[in-house]
Amino acid sequence: MAQRLSDWSYDTALDAAFQPCSVENWKSRQGGGFAFAGPPSTIVSSGEESSVYSINLPSDLTTNLLMLFRWVHFIAAITWIGLLYFFNLVNVPFMKEIDPVTKGKGLPALMSRALWWFRWGSVVTVVMGLAYWGSIVASDARNASASSAGAMASFFLIWTITWALMYACVIPGKGALDKGPVLAVIYVVLFTIASCLFLRFNDHGWESNRMLAIGIGGGMGWVMMLNVWGVIWRAQKKIILWTRDNAANSSPIPDRAKYLARQTFLMSRANFILSFPVLFLMGAASHYPMFGK
Ligand code: HEM
Fold it and tell me: How far is 228 from 167, CA to CA, in rounded Å?
């Protein structure tokens, strides 16, 4: 009898379900019958028609919960990174072009709205990502009868220290440390060391490519979120307030605004550049084996 696609039982529903199904694989699962993908009327299996267009949602709670995490993770990441790209590619050059009066009126209204979505997008992205990654670490560790505590601890320790060092570099706000290319070189070295340390600490042989790729890419995402809350938002809320006051009551904008604006710019640019390796590693987790034994 023809078997429906969804009737196949995988060893681990999630892992195997992501593997592409070759014609051989299909044939063997069909008990030797031939099948190929095409319009519904041409889907043939063991001489009978098979309905590939019928919907059969997975019914177990874990699969559904993880899918929900993934989906929300994507939506939040699009919101966050979309705004990050808008700030870097559109808003920064635009703000340089407009006159101070228009800027005084427009900036507070635009930025307070945009930054609300931006900072909460970062939280939802990271929380959903961590929930998903936690399940990957737990299942890797369980399969090897090992503990996932070390991997989780190394993640938070390594990447939080990385962020602290990154932030420390922009605090002086003068000299070589105020120059973008100098900071870029320091950050490349810093993130390379952090990534190597993460791989070094999680080198027991049972860690999967998914676990390690997200351990590094997600770690960079964690750093980006700390930048959003710890640097960008902290500075921007003051700048917005001062700009609003200046437009309404002509109260002078403190000198410190320039320093904070520069710090925001540097961290926002760093996040913009970090988003490239993050997205590469997110995509590599399930589709490009490069880590692990
Ligand atoms: C800048 C922030 C982030 C962006 C833009 C981002 C984006 C993405 C994208 C596009 C995917 C889909 C990859 C695919 O299915 O091929 C993904 C998957 C995933 N992300 Fe993120 N992510 C970010 C941060 C994080 C963080 C902080 C974590 C947690 C530590 C995380 C954990 C995950 C996990 C576990 C997956 C599923 C990987 C798999 O199925 O093998 N992400 N992310």
Answer: 11
